[in-house]
Amino acid sequence: xxxxxxxxxxxxxxxxxxxxxxxxxxxxxxxxxxxxxxxxxxxxxxxxxxxxxxxxxxxxxxxxxxxxxxxxxxxxxxxxxxxxxxxxxxxxxxxxxxxxxxxxxxxxxxxxxxxxxxxxxxxxxxxxxxxxxxxxxxxxxxxxxxxxxxxxxxxxxxxxxxxxxxxxxxxxxxxxxxxxxxxxxxxxxxxxxxxxxxxxxxxxxxxxxxxxxxxxxxxxxxxxxxxxxxxxxxxxxxxxxxxxxxxxxxxxxxxxxxxxxxxxxxxxxxxxxxxxxxxxxxxxxx
Length: 286
Fold this sequence. Notes:
Oligomer: single chain
CATH superfamily of the domain at 14-119: 2-enoyl-CoA Hydratase, Chain A, domain 1
CATH topology of the domain at 14-119: 2-enoyl-CoA Hydratase, Chain A, domain 1
CATH architecture of the domain at 14-119: Alpha-Beta Complex
Strand content: 5-15%
CATH class of the domain at 14-119: Alpha Beta
Shape: rod-shaped
Radius of gyration: 47 Å
Number of strands: 6
Order of helices and strands: EEHEHEHEEHHH
Number of helices: 6
Mean pLDDT: 79
């Protein structure tokens, strides 16, 4: 009788899928949390050896099927016969060669870690990379990478806690910037309101200067006429000053005399503002 054909062919312990320039390597022993057996290691070597020979691969993604990336060595094979009858030393030497080949892959390797990640892979990776720094990001909750990895020299491990610290620091900086921005806005708002106030008073200032020019022209005309008649210049200047003072004070004096008691107090306070004492006045314009 012919042998029965199984419904499914046995799957490889490590799978390789090519998606354009991206190679996806999947540990495929989910039933044992992707524990590494001799067959697993041999297939892994074959996969990365193939990737070494290809020049169309720009990136390698290494992941694990199931709940874990790898739970380390398959304990069922410890102490048993080695693959191909090799001695323990030969097995270690082959593993070292495989590790060197793995970490000398010409394309960058992105490892998607989850669940169990055991087996001293970081120490082995550092040795294979000749202590080149490793940047590791673990945002899983709970963590996929053991916290002790951060104590290894040349390994820079960042977790979700570090991300939270960065967010907190950024929030504090933004809050400080908001406070500074509010102070700037408040200062500019005060300056604008002051400018707006001066613009509101502009028509009154223009009218005040126009009337002052009228008084000045009238008194200058009188002074010129007196000088033309040959009068003493000192007396003319005295008359000019006295005439200007009388014209400027005539209407304010009448307003104070006619004002009611409450209004008179307001006008009296205005005198202090409009006509300060000589010692308090600003230096005259040159």
